[in-house]
Amino acid sequence: MSPSSNLPKQVKIVEVGPRDGLQNEKEFVPIDVKVDLINQLSSAGFPNIEAASFVSPKWIPQMAGSDEVMAAITRKPGTIYSALTPNMKGYESALAAKVDEIVIFSAASEAFAQKNINCSITESIERFAPVAKAAKQDGIRIRGSISCSFGCPYEGFVEPAQVAEVVKRMMALGCDEIDIADTIGVGTPGQIAALFEGLFTFAPKQQFSGHFHDTYGQALTNIYAAMQAGVSIFHSSIAGLGGCPYAKGATGNVATEDVLYMLKGLGIETGIDFDATVKIGEYIARATGKTNASRVGKAIAAKMNGRST
Ligand code: HMG
Ligand code: MG
């Protein structure tokens, strides 16, 4: 049996750098840089880009101007441009901005829901109900995101049953896709496999994605474990940008370049231009004045530029 025989032939990458990554920058990233980044990503073949967030600018100042970003990008036909919408106000902005997919987001832990969206999990679901109903009527895809599915910065270990409960509520709202997010990156492969296997006893595999942060260096291994369990959609962030404003110490999502390198090695298709992605990682690291957090990105860029690693 080949090592990859139980792995998917194809994986969908959801690039979350322009939102999950840039929302965490200290300095405001100019609109034209965001637009440039999104356009480069779509040109490189990314099928789904989390491009904007229609949340309160008092809570997340970095995402102010999301309407301008959406208006200025060059839409590539077939590319899904997603945006976060915590309530009807956010939904109306997202609709006006012509997003292809909205993201409603809650948590598996009560404390994190309170810190992040200022309400309980139950209240968040009640708040999302009219949003989801409107999106269905308007023919917009709905993605549900569940933070702290493996651990919470305030409550510690999170029981799989807590995640399953929120998944059921998200499914009842009509979500097309559900993200299982390891917001603080504490999950390990056995935990990842067990959680997904449990979820797949009542929900279809193709509806789930893994949103793994690399804080404890487990993200690639966790993606591998999730693929073995049957997941074929993963979120990643160019140059490993990101963190979480409400989870101290959380690093970025797993770096896109690292994920693509692993998938390429496994012969798994993504439809994304790898070399172009490395260049985009270098571009955004330069534009934000940060060190590229992708190990693969740094290694390949050094080769491309004739430097030694
Ligand atoms: P609140 O303060 O309880 O709400 O915030 P409110 O209804 O009382 O409104 C307060 C003010 O915000 C009002 O303005 C509203 O108009 C305004 P004021 O009257 O004071 O001038 N407001 C808005 N403005 C623009 N767009 C909106 C909006 N809604 C209200 N949509 C709320 C509740 C949910 C709005 C707030 O807590 C919020 O925006 N939270 C967002 C937090 C966030 O974006 N966190 C990061 C994203 S989640 C994440 O990164 C995790 C993820 O990546 C997965 C993972 O890794 O775990 C998805
Ligand atoms: Mg995240």
What is the compact description of this entry?
The protein is α/β, with parallel strands linked by helices and 309 residues long. The protein has helices at residues 17-21, 31-43, 66-72, 88-96, 110-117, 121-138, 160-172, 189-199, 219-229, 256-265, 274-288, 295-304; strands spanning 12-15, 48-53, 80-84, 101-107, 141-147, 151-152, 156-157, 177-182, 208-212, 233-236.
Number of domains: 1
Q: What would the average pLDDT be, to the nearest integer?
A: 95
Helix content: 40-55%
What characterizes the major β-sheet? 8 strands, parallel, barrel
Task: Return residue spans where pLDDT drops below 50 for at least 5 consecutive residues.
Answer: none
Strand order of the largest sheet: 1-2-3-4-5-8-9-10
| CATH class (first level) name | Alpha Beta
CATH topology: TIM Barrel
Can you tell me about this structure?
The structure is a single chain. By secondary structure, this protein is an alpha/beta fold. The chain has a single domain, classed as Aldolase class I (TIM Barrel). The chain has twelve helices and ten strands. It has helices at 17-21, 31-43, 66-72, 88-96, 110-117, 121-138, 160-172, 189-199, 219-229, 256-265, 274-288, 295-304; strands at residues 12-15, 48-53, 80-84, 101-107, 141-147, 151-152, 156-157, 177-182, 208-212, 233-236. An eight-stranded parallel beta barrel has the order 1-2-3-4-5-8-9-10, surrounded by seven helices. Strands 6-7 form a two-stranded antiparallel sheet. β6 (151-152) and β7 (156-157) form a beta hairpin. The longest helix is centred in the middle third of the chain and has 18 residues, at 121-138. The structure holds 3-hydroxy-3-methylglutaryl-coenzyme A and magnesium ion. Magnesium ion binds at residues 20, 181, 183, 211, 244, 253.
